[in-house]
Amino acid sequence: ACDDASRRPWRHEVATGEQAMTTTGGRTWDAARKLCNFLEQEWPTICSSYDCAASAHILELGAGTGWLGMTVASNLVPDGEPGSVCLTEQSGGGAMDWLEQNLAENRAAGLALSAVGLQELDWTLWEDCPDNPSSPSPGRSLPCTPGGTSSWNLLLGSDLVYNEAGVRLLPKVLKDFAARCPDLLILYAHTLHRFDMFDLDFCESLLREGLEYRAVAAENAATVEAAGRDADPLADEHAGFMEEMFPDQRVVIFQIRLQGASKDFLPWSSCLVARPPPKELKAAVVSQPRPVTKNGIVKVGRFGIILPLETEDPEDCREKELPDGSFIVRLRCLGPFGSGEHPTTELMLQALQDCKLDDLAVCDYGCGSGVLALAALVLGARRSIGVDIIPDALLAARANVEANTWAGPVDGEPRMGLFLPQEDVLEKDLDFYARYGDWRKPEANRGWEPLPSKEEGQFDLVVANIVVGPLCHSANAVQRLLRPGGEVLLAGMKEGMQVSQVKEAYSPYFDLTAVGSIDGWALLKGRLRGIQMATPEA
Protein backbone atom coordinates (compact mmCIF):
# COMPACT_ATOMS: atom_id res chain seq x y z
CA ALA A 1 0.00 0.00 0.00
CA CYS A 2 2.85 2.36 0.79
CA ASP A 3 4.66 1.84 -2.54
CA ASP A 4 1.50 2.12 -4.63
CA ALA A 5 0.29 5.25 -2.85
CA SER A 6 3.65 7.00 -3.22
CA ARG A 7 3.99 6.27 -6.94
CA ARG A 8 0.75 7.77 -8.22
CA PRO A 9 -1.34 10.87 -7.50
CA TRP A 10 -4.26 10.23 -5.22
CA ARG A 11 -7.77 9.98 -6.61
CA HIS A 12 -10.21 12.49 -5.13
CA GLU A 13 -13.45 10.95 -6.33
CA VAL A 14 -15.46 10.87 -3.11
CA ALA A 15 -18.58 13.03 -3.34
CA THR A 16 -20.36 14.39 -0.27
CA GLY A 17 -22.86 17.20 -0.04
CA GLU A 18 -23.86 19.54 2.76
CA GLN A 19 -26.68 19.18 5.23
CA ALA A 20 -27.96 21.43 8.00
CA MET A 21 -27.37 19.54 11.25
CA THR A 22 -27.13 20.16 14.97
CA THR A 23 -23.60 18.75 14.84
CA THR A 24 -20.68 20.06 12.76
CA GLY A 25 -20.61 17.09 10.40
CA GLY A 26 -22.94 18.55 7.81
CA ARG A 27 -20.10 19.68 5.56
CA THR A 28 -16.48 18.82 4.74
CA TRP A 29 -14.21 21.38 6.39
CA ASP A 30 -11.09 22.73 4.73
CA ALA A 31 -8.94 21.25 7.50
CA ALA A 32 -9.95 17.75 6.34
CA ARG A 33 -8.86 18.52 2.78
CA LYS A 34 -5.55 19.92 4.01
CA LEU A 35 -4.94 16.78 6.10
CA CYS A 36 -5.66 14.66 3.02
CA ASN A 37 -3.07 16.68 1.06
CA PHE A 38 -0.55 16.10 3.85
CA LEU A 39 -1.14 12.34 3.84
CA GLU A 40 -0.80 12.16 0.06
CA GLN A 41 2.52 13.98 0.06
CA GLU A 42 4.01 12.51 3.23
CA TRP A 43 2.81 8.90 3.09
CA PRO A 44 6.29 7.51 2.21
CA THR A 45 7.76 9.32 5.23
CA ILE A 46 4.97 8.02 7.45
CA CYS A 47 5.54 4.46 6.23
CA SER A 48 9.26 4.66 6.95
CA SER A 49 8.67 5.97 10.49
CA TYR A 50 5.61 3.97 11.51
CA ASP A 51 4.46 0.42 10.88
CA CYS A 52 2.10 1.14 7.97
CA ALA A 53 3.96 -0.38 5.01
CA ALA A 54 2.37 -3.84 4.96
CA SER A 55 -1.13 -2.90 6.03
CA ALA A 56 -2.65 0.23 7.54
CA HIS A 57 -5.43 0.26 10.10
CA ILE A 58 -6.70 3.82 10.18
CA LEU A 59 -9.34 5.43 12.39
CA GLU A 60 -10.95 8.85 11.97
CA LEU A 61 -12.54 10.66 14.88
CA GLY A 62 -15.59 12.80 14.20
CA ALA A 63 -15.71 11.73 10.56
CA GLY A 64 -18.64 14.01 9.68
CA THR A 65 -19.39 13.61 5.96
CA GLY A 66 -16.79 10.82 5.77
CA TRP A 67 -14.98 12.54 2.89
CA LEU A 68 -11.53 12.33 4.45
CA GLY A 69 -11.74 8.72 5.62
CA MET A 70 -13.27 7.49 2.36
CA THR A 71 -10.66 9.34 0.29
CA VAL A 72 -7.88 7.83 2.42
CA ALA A 73 -9.42 4.37 2.10
CA SER A 74 -9.80 4.52 -1.69
CA ASN A 75 -6.12 5.41 -2.05
CA LEU A 76 -4.38 3.55 0.78
CA VAL A 77 -6.61 0.51 1.30
CA PRO A 78 -8.31 -0.22 -2.04
CA ASP A 79 -10.46 -3.31 -2.43
CA GLY A 80 -8.49 -6.50 -1.88
CA GLU A 81 -5.58 -4.82 -0.05
CA PRO A 82 -4.87 -5.58 3.61
CA GLY A 83 -5.88 -2.93 6.10
CA SER A 84 -8.99 -1.08 7.20
CA VAL A 85 -10.43 2.37 7.73
CA CYS A 86 -12.89 3.01 10.57
CA LEU A 87 -15.01 6.17 10.52
CA THR A 88 -16.41 7.12 13.91
CA GLU A 89 -19.18 9.53 14.84
CA GLN A 90 -21.53 10.29 17.67
CA SER A 91 -24.94 8.69 17.53
CA GLY A 92 -27.02 11.81 18.12
CA GLY A 93 -27.92 14.74 15.92
CA GLY A 94 -28.23 12.68 12.75
CA ALA A 95 -24.45 12.44 12.36
CA MET A 96 -24.25 8.68 11.96
CA ASP A 97 -27.23 8.57 9.58
CA TRP A 98 -25.57 11.21 7.38
CA LEU A 99 -22.29 9.31 7.43
CA GLU A 100 -24.00 6.04 6.50
CA GLN A 101 -25.82 7.74 3.63
CA ASN A 102 -22.60 9.20 2.18
CA LEU A 103 -20.80 5.87 2.41
CA ALA A 104 -23.68 4.03 0.72
CA GLU A 105 -23.92 6.57 -2.09
CA ASN A 106 -20.18 6.45 -2.83
CA ARG A 107 -20.17 2.65 -2.81
CA ALA A 108 -23.14 2.69 -5.20
CA ALA A 109 -21.12 5.02 -7.45
CA GLY A 110 -18.48 2.29 -7.78
CA LEU A 111 -15.76 3.53 -5.41
CA ALA A 112 -13.54 0.88 -3.86
CA LEU A 113 -14.58 1.28 -0.24
CA SER A 114 -14.96 -2.29 1.03
CA ALA A 115 -12.29 -1.58 3.68
CA VAL A 116 -14.41 1.17 5.28
CA GLY A 117 -16.41 0.46 8.41
CA LEU A 118 -18.51 2.71 10.66
CA GLN A 119 -18.63 2.69 14.44
CA GLU A 120 -20.27 4.97 16.99
CA LEU A 121 -17.93 6.58 19.48
CA ASP A 122 -19.35 8.62 22.34
CA TRP A 123 -16.71 10.94 23.78
CA THR A 124 -18.82 11.63 26.86
CA LEU A 125 -17.83 8.17 28.13
CA TRP A 126 -14.49 9.81 28.94
CA GLU A 127 -16.15 12.65 30.90
CA ASP A 128 -15.03 11.33 34.30
CA CYS A 129 -11.81 9.77 33.10
CA PRO A 130 -9.11 10.20 35.78
CA ASP A 131 -6.09 12.27 34.81
CA ASN A 132 -3.61 9.42 34.53
CA PRO A 133 -1.56 9.85 31.36
CA SER A 134 0.28 6.56 31.64
CA SER A 135 -2.58 4.06 31.63
CA PRO A 136 -5.69 3.31 29.55
CA SER A 137 -9.10 4.34 30.81
CA PRO A 138 -10.88 1.34 32.38
CA GLY A 139 -14.37 0.42 31.24
CA ARG A 140 -14.21 2.31 27.96
CA SER A 141 -13.82 0.16 24.89
CA LEU A 142 -12.19 1.52 21.76
CA PRO A 143 -13.35 0.67 18.23
CA CYS A 144 -11.84 -2.56 16.93
CA THR A 145 -10.13 -3.41 13.67
CA PRO A 146 -11.63 -6.21 11.53
CA GLY A 147 -9.26 -8.57 13.37
CA GLY A 148 -10.98 -7.78 16.67
CA THR A 149 -8.13 -5.77 18.20
CA SER A 150 -7.61 -2.09 18.89
CA SER A 151 -4.19 -2.05 17.24
CA TRP A 152 -4.58 1.07 15.13
CA ASN A 153 -1.65 2.49 13.16
CA LEU A 154 -3.00 5.92 12.35
CA LEU A 155 -5.61 8.13 14.01
CA LEU A 156 -6.94 11.17 12.13
CA GLY A 157 -9.08 14.13 13.09
CA SER A 158 -9.87 17.56 11.68
CA ASP A 159 -11.50 20.63 13.26
CA LEU A 160 -13.01 18.76 16.18
CA VAL A 161 -12.56 21.55 18.75
CA TYR A 162 -15.27 24.19 18.52
CA ASN A 163 -16.73 24.22 22.04
CA GLU A 164 -15.79 23.57 25.65
CA ALA A 165 -16.77 19.90 25.42
CA GLY A 166 -14.26 19.34 22.62
CA VAL A 167 -11.54 21.14 24.57
CA ARG A 168 -12.19 18.94 27.58
CA LEU A 169 -12.96 15.53 26.04
CA LEU A 170 -10.87 15.19 22.89
CA PRO A 171 -7.53 15.15 24.78
CA LYS A 172 -8.89 12.41 27.07
CA VAL A 173 -9.94 10.30 24.07
CA LEU A 174 -6.59 10.83 22.36
CA LYS A 175 -4.73 9.92 25.54
CA ASP A 176 -6.64 6.64 25.80
CA PHE A 177 -5.87 5.70 22.20
CA ALA A 178 -2.20 6.61 22.64
CA ALA A 179 -1.92 4.60 25.87
CA ARG A 180 -3.48 1.48 24.35
CA CYS A 181 -1.70 1.70 20.98
CA PRO A 182 1.99 2.45 21.68
CA ASP A 183 2.92 2.75 17.98
CA LEU A 184 -0.06 4.91 17.04
CA LEU A 185 0.51 8.01 14.89
CA ILE A 186 -2.02 10.75 15.74
CA LEU A 187 -2.47 13.57 13.22
CA TYR A 188 -4.92 16.35 13.94
CA ALA A 189 -5.65 19.21 11.49
CA HIS A 190 -6.92 22.30 13.27
CA THR A 191 -7.99 25.71 11.98
CA LEU A 192 -6.36 28.25 14.27
CA HIS A 193 -7.92 31.65 15.02
CA ARG A 194 -11.52 30.57 14.59
CA PHE A 195 -11.83 30.49 18.39
CA ASP A 196 -8.57 31.82 19.84
CA MET A 197 -9.33 30.92 23.46
CA PHE A 198 -10.42 27.41 22.52
CA ASP A 199 -7.14 27.02 20.60
CA LEU A 200 -5.17 27.87 23.73
CA ASP A 201 -7.37 25.86 26.08
CA PHE A 202 -7.10 22.79 23.84
CA CYS A 203 -3.29 22.93 23.79
CA GLU A 204 -3.20 23.33 27.56
CA SER A 205 -5.65 20.45 27.98
CA LEU A 206 -3.38 18.20 25.90
CA LEU A 207 -0.48 18.94 28.23
CA ARG A 208 -2.58 18.33 31.34
CA GLU A 209 -3.53 14.90 30.00
CA GLY A 210 0.12 13.94 29.66
CA LEU A 211 0.26 14.47 25.90
CA GLU A 212 2.57 16.60 23.82
CA TYR A 213 2.09 18.12 20.39
CA ARG A 214 4.17 19.50 17.56
CA ALA A 215 3.12 21.25 14.36
CA VAL A 216 4.34 19.26 11.34
CA ALA A 217 2.75 21.39 8.60
CA ALA A 218 0.93 24.71 8.34
CA GLU A 219 -0.96 26.46 5.63
CA ASN A 220 1.38 28.61 3.50
CA ALA A 221 4.42 27.92 5.67
CA ALA A 222 7.41 26.32 3.94
CA THR A 223 9.29 26.05 7.25
CA VAL A 224 8.34 25.89 10.90
CA GLU A 225 9.86 29.36 11.28
CA ALA A 226 7.49 30.66 8.60
CA ALA A 227 4.56 29.38 10.64
CA GLY A 228 5.58 31.82 13.38
CA ARG A 229 3.44 31.92 16.51
CA ASP A 230 0.96 29.46 14.98
CA ALA A 231 3.47 26.62 15.27
CA ASP A 232 2.89 26.65 19.03
CA PRO A 233 0.04 28.79 20.35
CA LEU A 234 1.33 28.41 23.93
CA ALA A 235 4.85 29.68 23.22
CA ASP A 236 5.91 32.72 25.28
CA GLU A 237 2.78 32.35 27.40
CA HIS A 238 0.71 32.78 24.21
CA ALA A 239 1.53 36.51 24.05
CA GLY A 240 2.39 36.43 20.35
CA PHE A 241 -0.57 34.23 19.44
CA MET A 242 -3.11 36.74 20.77
CA GLU A 243 -1.51 40.04 19.80
CA GLU A 244 -2.72 40.42 16.20
CA MET A 245 -6.01 42.24 15.69
CA PHE A 246 -6.96 40.57 12.39
CA PRO A 247 -5.22 37.16 12.47
CA ASP A 248 -5.65 34.99 9.40
CA GLN A 249 -7.34 31.67 10.01
CA ARG A 250 -4.80 28.97 9.23
CA VAL A 251 -4.93 25.20 9.09
CA VAL A 252 -2.10 23.63 11.08
CA ILE A 253 -1.45 19.89 11.28
CA PHE A 254 -0.33 18.73 14.70
CA GLN A 255 1.20 15.40 15.62
CA ILE A 256 0.09 14.39 19.12
CA ARG A 257 1.65 11.68 21.30
CA LEU A 258 2.20 10.66 24.92
CA GLN A 259 4.85 12.70 26.65
CA GLY A 260 8.18 10.92 26.47
CA ALA A 261 7.18 8.63 23.59
CA SER A 262 10.16 6.90 22.00
CA LYS A 263 9.50 7.65 18.34
CA ASP A 264 10.52 10.98 16.90
CA PHE A 265 8.07 13.51 15.60
CA LEU A 266 7.63 13.62 11.84
CA PRO A 267 9.78 16.20 10.04
CA TRP A 268 8.24 19.50 8.94
CA SER A 269 6.39 19.36 5.64
CA SER A 270 5.93 22.24 3.21
CA CYS A 271 3.07 20.47 1.42
CA LEU A 272 0.46 23.05 2.46
CA VAL A 273 2.21 25.93 0.71
CA ALA A 274 -0.11 27.01 -2.07
CA ARG A 275 1.18 28.08 -5.42
CA PRO A 276 1.12 31.88 -5.74
CA PRO A 277 -1.77 33.24 -7.76
CA PRO A 278 -1.11 34.79 -11.18
CA LYS A 279 0.33 38.26 -10.90
CA GLU A 280 -2.14 41.06 -11.40
CA LEU A 281 -1.79 44.79 -11.59
CA LYS A 282 -1.74 46.28 -8.15
CA ALA A 283 -4.47 48.68 -7.29
CA ALA A 284 -3.55 52.30 -7.09
CA VAL A 285 -2.49 53.22 -3.58
CA VAL A 286 -4.93 55.58 -1.93
CA SER A 287 -3.42 59.01 -2.33
CA GLN A 288 -5.33 60.85 0.39
CA PRO A 289 -3.47 61.73 3.61
CA ARG A 290 -3.33 58.90 6.12
CA PRO A 291 -5.60 59.21 9.16
CA VAL A 292 -4.36 61.36 11.99
CA THR A 293 -5.44 60.68 15.56
CA LYS A 294 -5.21 63.70 17.85
CA ASN A 295 -7.06 64.35 21.08
CA GLY A 296 -9.12 61.24 20.46
CA ILE A 297 -10.27 62.31 17.00
CA VAL A 298 -9.47 60.20 13.92
CA LYS A 299 -9.39 62.27 10.73
CA VAL A 300 -9.93 60.37 7.48
CA GLY A 301 -10.44 62.75 4.57
CA ARG A 302 -13.34 64.99 5.60
CA PHE A 303 -14.42 62.55 8.28
CA GLY A 304 -13.80 63.26 11.94
CA ILE A 305 -14.36 60.13 14.06
CA ILE A 306 -14.60 61.21 17.71
CA LEU A 307 -13.44 58.29 19.85
CA PRO A 308 -14.78 57.60 23.34
CA LEU A 309 -12.99 59.10 26.31
CA GLU A 310 -11.80 56.93 29.19
CA THR A 311 -14.29 58.81 31.36
CA GLU A 312 -17.42 60.07 29.65
CA ASP A 313 -17.70 63.86 29.71
CA PRO A 314 -21.21 65.25 29.16
CA GLU A 315 -19.66 68.55 28.09
CA ASP A 316 -17.35 66.97 25.51
CA CYS A 317 -17.31 69.28 22.49
CA ARG A 318 -14.24 68.08 20.60
CA GLU A 319 -16.11 68.40 17.29
CA LYS A 320 -15.35 72.14 17.49
CA GLU A 321 -11.73 71.26 16.73
CA LEU A 322 -12.71 70.01 13.26
CA PRO A 323 -12.86 72.27 10.21
CA ASP A 324 -16.20 73.49 8.91
CA GLY A 325 -17.78 71.01 6.51
CA SER A 326 -16.37 67.95 8.31
CA PHE A 327 -18.42 64.76 8.44
CA ILE A 328 -18.64 64.05 12.17
CA VAL A 329 -19.33 60.63 13.71
CA ARG A 330 -19.17 60.26 17.47
CA LEU A 331 -18.36 56.82 18.88
CA ARG A 332 -19.40 56.17 22.45
CA CYS A 333 -18.30 52.51 22.38
CA LEU A 334 -15.86 50.76 20.04
CA GLY A 335 -17.10 47.24 20.75
CA PRO A 336 -15.00 44.52 19.07
CA PHE A 337 -13.46 47.01 16.60
CA GLY A 338 -14.19 49.86 14.20
CA SER A 339 -12.61 53.21 14.99
CA GLY A 340 -11.35 54.35 11.60
CA GLU A 341 -7.71 53.83 12.51
CA HIS A 342 -7.19 50.42 10.89
CA PRO A 343 -6.25 50.54 7.17
CA THR A 344 -9.34 48.52 6.17
CA THR A 345 -11.72 50.99 7.84
CA GLU A 346 -9.74 53.86 6.39
CA LEU A 347 -10.12 52.39 2.91
CA MET A 348 -13.86 52.11 3.40
CA LEU A 349 -14.26 55.65 4.72
CA GLN A 350 -12.25 57.06 1.81
CA ALA A 351 -14.30 55.05 -0.70
CA LEU A 352 -17.63 56.11 0.83
CA GLN A 353 -16.62 59.75 0.42
CA ASP A 354 -16.18 59.08 -3.31
CA CYS A 355 -19.67 57.54 -3.61
CA LYS A 356 -22.92 59.38 -4.26
CA LEU A 357 -25.12 58.06 -1.47
CA ASP A 358 -27.96 60.59 -1.59
CA ASP A 359 -31.29 58.82 -0.91
CA LEU A 360 -29.71 55.34 -1.14
CA ALA A 361 -30.13 52.38 1.20
CA VAL A 362 -26.85 51.02 2.59
CA CYS A 363 -26.12 47.83 4.57
CA ASP A 364 -22.98 47.47 6.67
CA TYR A 365 -22.49 43.68 6.83
CA GLY A 366 -20.25 42.90 9.81
CA CYS A 367 -20.81 46.37 11.25
CA GLY A 368 -18.72 46.19 14.43
CA SER A 369 -19.05 49.62 16.05
CA GLY A 370 -21.38 50.74 13.27
CA VAL A 371 -18.98 53.42 12.08
CA LEU A 372 -19.49 52.67 8.36
CA ALA A 373 -23.30 52.56 8.62
CA LEU A 374 -23.22 55.88 10.47
CA ALA A 375 -20.79 57.30 7.92
CA ALA A 376 -23.22 56.39 5.12
CA LEU A 377 -25.99 58.36 6.84
CA VAL A 378 -23.73 61.39 7.23
CA LEU A 379 -23.00 61.22 3.51
CA GLY A 380 -26.67 61.36 2.60
CA ALA A 381 -27.95 57.78 2.63
CA ARG A 382 -31.71 57.56 3.18
CA ARG A 383 -31.26 54.70 5.65
CA SER A 384 -28.63 52.20 6.72
CA ILE A 385 -28.64 48.81 8.37
CA GLY A 386 -25.90 47.30 10.52
CA VAL A 387 -25.59 43.51 10.59
CA ASP A 388 -23.22 41.62 12.86
CA ILE A 389 -23.02 38.08 14.19
CA ILE A 390 -21.49 39.25 17.49
CA PRO A 391 -24.22 40.50 19.89
CA ASP A 392 -21.72 42.70 21.76
CA ALA A 393 -20.91 44.46 18.48
CA LEU A 394 -24.58 45.29 17.99
CA LEU A 395 -24.74 46.56 21.56
CA ALA A 396 -21.80 48.89 20.86
CA ALA A 397 -23.34 50.01 17.57
CA ARG A 398 -26.61 50.87 19.31
CA ALA A 399 -24.74 53.02 21.81
CA ASN A 400 -23.08 54.83 18.91
CA VAL A 401 -26.40 55.41 17.14
CA GLU A 402 -27.70 56.98 20.35
CA ALA A 403 -24.58 59.17 20.56
CA ASN A 404 -25.38 60.69 17.15
CA THR A 405 -28.82 62.27 17.46
CA TRP A 406 -29.01 62.92 13.72
CA ALA A 407 -29.06 59.12 13.19
CA GLY A 408 -32.37 58.81 15.02
CA PRO A 409 -35.83 58.31 13.50
CA VAL A 410 -37.28 60.78 10.99
CA ASP A 411 -41.06 61.17 11.01
CA GLY A 412 -41.24 58.07 13.16
CA GLU A 413 -39.26 55.95 10.70
CA PRO A 414 -35.86 54.63 11.89
CA ARG A 415 -32.91 55.68 9.73
CA MET A 416 -30.63 52.95 11.10
CA GLY A 417 -31.47 49.41 12.17
CA LEU A 418 -29.28 46.76 13.77
CA PHE A 419 -29.69 43.01 13.28
CA LEU A 420 -28.06 39.61 13.46
CA PRO A 421 -27.53 37.97 10.03
CA GLN A 422 -30.32 36.20 8.15
CA GLU A 423 -31.90 33.14 9.78
CA ASP A 424 -30.37 30.65 7.34
CA VAL A 425 -26.91 32.15 7.98
CA LEU A 426 -27.32 31.75 11.74
CA GLU A 427 -28.64 28.23 11.23
CA LYS A 428 -25.40 27.11 9.59
CA ASP A 429 -22.86 29.24 11.45
CA LEU A 430 -20.68 26.97 13.58
CA ASP A 431 -18.81 29.88 15.17
CA PHE A 432 -22.00 31.43 16.51
CA TYR A 433 -23.29 28.10 17.80
CA ALA A 434 -20.00 27.34 19.57
CA ARG A 435 -19.80 30.74 21.25
CA TYR A 436 -23.42 31.42 22.11
CA GLY A 437 -25.57 28.35 21.43
CA ASP A 438 -28.82 28.05 19.48
CA TRP A 439 -29.54 31.48 17.97
CA ARG A 440 -33.26 31.13 18.74
CA LYS A 441 -32.67 31.15 22.50
CA PRO A 442 -32.59 34.49 24.36
CA GLU A 443 -29.31 33.69 26.08
CA ALA A 444 -27.70 33.30 22.63
CA ASN A 445 -29.29 36.13 20.63
CA ARG A 446 -29.21 38.56 23.61
CA GLY A 447 -32.47 40.10 22.40
CA TRP A 448 -31.32 40.82 18.84
CA GLU A 449 -33.41 39.72 15.87
CA PRO A 450 -32.11 38.20 12.63
CA LEU A 451 -32.29 40.42 9.56
CA PRO A 452 -35.89 40.14 8.24
CA SER A 453 -36.29 38.39 4.92
CA LYS A 454 -38.19 41.43 3.60
CA GLU A 455 -34.87 43.34 3.61
CA GLU A 456 -33.39 41.11 0.92
CA GLY A 457 -33.10 42.89 -2.41
CA GLN A 458 -33.61 46.31 -0.79
CA PHE A 459 -30.11 47.81 -0.71
CA ASP A 460 -28.21 49.90 -3.23
CA LEU A 461 -24.84 49.35 -1.56
CA VAL A 462 -23.47 46.71 0.83
CA VAL A 463 -20.17 47.36 2.57
CA ALA A 464 -18.39 44.50 4.34
CA ASN A 465 -15.16 45.05 6.27
CA ILE A 466 -14.54 41.69 7.97
CA VAL A 467 -11.74 39.13 8.11
CA VAL A 468 -11.20 37.12 4.96
CA GLY A 469 -12.71 33.78 6.03
CA PRO A 470 -16.13 35.13 7.09
CA LEU A 471 -15.98 37.58 4.19
CA CYS A 472 -15.74 34.71 1.69
CA HIS A 473 -18.46 32.70 3.44
CA SER A 474 -20.78 35.73 3.33
CA ALA A 475 -20.83 36.07 -0.48
CA ASN A 476 -24.29 34.56 -0.98
CA ALA A 477 -25.81 36.37 1.98
CA VAL A 478 -24.38 39.69 0.78
CA GLN A 479 -25.58 39.40 -2.81
CA ARG A 480 -29.11 38.56 -1.66
CA LEU A 481 -29.38 41.96 0.02
CA LEU A 482 -28.78 43.99 -3.14
CA ARG A 483 -31.19 45.39 -5.66
CA PRO A 484 -30.43 44.40 -9.27
CA GLY A 485 -27.35 46.37 -10.24
CA GLY A 486 -26.43 47.13 -6.62
CA GLU A 487 -22.81 47.44 -5.58
CA VAL A 488 -20.47 46.04 -2.93
CA LEU A 489 -17.38 47.43 -1.27
CA LEU A 490 -15.28 44.72 0.39
CA ALA A 491 -12.32 45.08 2.75
CA GLY A 492 -10.55 42.95 5.33
CA MET A 493 -8.26 41.03 2.96
CA LYS A 494 -4.55 41.30 2.20
CA GLU A 495 -3.28 41.86 -1.31
CA GLY A 496 -2.30 38.73 -3.23
CA MET A 497 -3.72 35.36 -2.27
CA GLN A 498 -6.47 36.67 0.00
CA VAL A 499 -7.74 39.00 -2.73
CA SER A 500 -7.85 35.99 -5.08
CA GLN A 501 -9.82 34.00 -2.49
CA VAL A 502 -12.40 36.76 -2.10
CA LYS A 503 -12.73 37.22 -5.87
CA GLU A 504 -13.33 33.50 -6.29
CA ALA A 505 -15.95 33.41 -3.52
CA TYR A 506 -17.89 36.34 -5.03
CA SER A 507 -17.36 35.36 -8.69
CA PRO A 508 -20.85 33.80 -9.12
CA TYR A 509 -22.39 37.21 -8.45
CA PHE A 510 -19.82 39.99 -9.07
CA ASP A 511 -16.82 40.94 -11.17
CA LEU A 512 -14.69 42.47 -8.43
CA THR A 513 -12.04 45.10 -9.11
CA ALA A 514 -9.30 46.26 -6.75
CA VAL A 515 -9.81 50.00 -6.28
CA GLY A 516 -7.39 50.82 -3.47
CA SER A 517 -4.80 49.53 -1.04
CA ILE A 518 -3.06 50.72 2.10
CA ASP A 519 -0.16 48.94 3.81
CA GLY A 520 -0.93 45.70 1.94
CA TRP A 521 -4.66 45.77 2.71
CA ALA A 522 -6.93 45.83 -0.34
CA LEU A 523 -10.33 47.30 -1.21
CA LEU A 524 -12.55 45.57 -3.79
CA LYS A 525 -15.60 46.94 -5.58
CA GLY A 526 -18.17 45.22 -7.77
CA ARG A 527 -21.68 45.46 -9.21
CA LEU A 528 -24.26 42.68 -8.93
CA ARG A 529 -24.73 41.15 -12.34
CA GLY A 530 -27.61 39.23 -13.85
CA ILE A 531 -30.66 38.25 -11.84
CA GLN A 532 -30.37 38.37 -8.09
CA MET A 533 -30.44 34.99 -6.34
CA ALA A 534 -33.03 35.71 -3.68
CA THR A 535 -33.19 32.27 -2.09
CA PRO A 536 -30.83 30.93 0.60
CA GLU A 537 -28.25 28.30 -0.26
CA ALA A 538 -29.35 24.75 0.43
From TrEMBL:
Keyword Methyltransferase: yes
InterPro entries: Methyltransf_16, Ribosomal_L11_MeTrfase_PrmA, SAM-dependent_MTases_sf
Keywords: Methyltransferase, Transferase
Alphabetized PANTHER family for the sequence: ELECTRON TRANSFER FLAVOPROTEIN BETA SUBUNIT LYSINE METHYLTRANSFERASE
Keyword Ion transport: no
GO biological process: methylation
Protein name: ETFB lysine methyltransferase
Family note: Belongs to the methyltransferase superfamily. ETFBKMT family.
GO MF entries: protein-lysine N-methyltransferase activity
Pfam families xref list: Methyltransf_16, PrmA
Organismal lineage: Eukaryota, Sar, Alveolata, Dinophyceae, Suessiales
